[in-house]
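Below is how a single chain appears once it has passed through the pipeline. First comes the sequence as given, then the structure the pipeline wrote out for it. We keep one example in the README because the format questions we get most often are answered faster by looking than by reading.
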Amino acid sequence: MGLRKTVEVVPRARRTLTSLRNLGYDLRHAVADIVDNSISAGATVVDITVHFAGRGSWIRISDNGRGMNAEELTEAFRYGSDREYSKTELGRFGFGLKAASTSQCRKVTVISRADTSGAALEGRELDVDHIAEVDNWEIFELAPDELPEGARSVLGDGPGTVVLWEDLDRVLQYQDPFGGWAKRQLIACAEDIDQHLAMVFHRFLAGEVADGELLRITVNGSRVEPWDPFCRAESGTSPLQEEDLEVRSRGGNGIVRLRPFVLPNQDGFSSSAAWKRASGPKNWNRQQGFYVYRADRMIQAGGWCRLRAVEEHTKLARVSLEFFPELDSAFGVNVAKASVTLPEELRVALGPLVSTWCGVANTAYRLKRRPTSSTPTRPRSSSTPTGRHISQTNPSQDAPDRVRGDAQPKGAASPALASGAPAATSQIVDPPASSARQALEAAAAQVGEDSALARIVTALRTMSPEVARDLGW
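Resulting structure:
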C-alpha cells in the first residue's frame, strides 16, 4: 500500500475553547491546579489575593519559583504543552494553566521572570473574547509598559510567576456587581480556597514531603495552616497496620500504600476546638473514608468509593491511600485532579480491609471516657508489604456515597478551617452496654488491641448474635 493522503484538521478555536472551559473545575480546584504549577517550579511561597471591585474584581496567584523565559512562557499557553514530567511532579496533561484559568475567568495574564542572571520580565495574555472574535488560537505578547502593575510589582527583582485572573464570569454571577451580596460571595470564595488548600497541600505545608522545602501559602495575607485529616497530634489517634498493594496497569506497575487511622471519639480529643476542627469541611460523617494522594498531593477527601455507605458509627475511620503518577491511568485521574476511580481488582482487595478498619472505628466510637491514668497505648503499625498483585480491569465510574446521619446539606456553606469556625457535629450518645462490654473495650484499648477486639466482635456477631446483642455489640 502506498502513502495515504492526509489532510490536517485544526480544531476551531472558538468552539473548542468554549468546551475546554467546562472540564469540571470549580474555583477551589482551579486555584489548586495553579498551585501545583508553583510547587513544580520549586516555589516555597505562594500568595493568593482575592480582590473585590465589582466587575473589576480579580484573583492573583504569585510564587517565588524558577519562573519562565519568553519561549517557555509562550509554550505554557499551548493546550497540551510539550514537556517532560518527573515521577513526583504534580502536573501531567499540559492543560492546567489554561484550562484552570479559563474555567473561572475570561482574561488570564501571566508574568514571569526566569531564574537566570539579567532575565527580563515576560508577559502573555489570553483573552477569551479575542479568541471568540478571531476564531484563532492567539495570545498577546505584552510589552513592558503593558504589564499590569498589580502583577508586576509582586515579583520585584526576583524570579517567579504571577497568574492574574480578570473578568471573573464563572466566579461572580451577580446582577448588582457592587452590592454587598457580591462582596460577601467573593469573601466566601476566599475562605473556601483557604480551607481547600489547607487540606489538599497539608503535607507540603507541614514539611512532610521528602526532599521538599516547607511550603508557605497565604490567602489575602493570612497564612494557610495545614489540616491533617488523621489528627496525628492527638494522643488518642490509633494508626492501624499499613498495607502495600501492587497495582498493574497499562501505564505501568506501582505500589499503592494504605495507612489507616482510627480517630478518638469526642471524649478522647484534647479540646472541643480540636474536635470541631477535625470534623473537616464536610463534617464528620462525610469526612470518613479514603484520602487519596497522588505524589503527596490530596485528590480525594473522604468517602468509601462505593465499598460501603458512610454512617455515624464508622465516622472515626480515615485511610490514607497513596500512589504516584505512573498509576494515573489505573486510577482514572482527570485533568482537574479532583476525583479518582479505584481499579476493580483493588476494590476487591480493599473489601475485607475496610470491614476490619470500620470495626475498629465502631469500637472506638462506643468507648466511654476513661480516666487519664488509663490512656490507651497507641498500637504500632507495620509497613511490611503484603506482596499482593492487582491487575487493572476496566474501571467503572464511582457513584456518590450514600450518606446517613449528620451529612452537610447540599449547598451549605463550609466552615473556614483557618479561622477555626465551629462546624456542625453530632452529639455522641453511648448506647446502653453491660459492664462486661465496657471492661473488654477498656482492656483492649489499654493494651493497644482495638483491632483484635474488632475482629472478635465481628466473629461473635456471626457465631452468637444473641450474645453480641446482650453485650451491646
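The CA atoms of residues 238 and 262 lie 5 Å apart.

See the next section for the split statistics.
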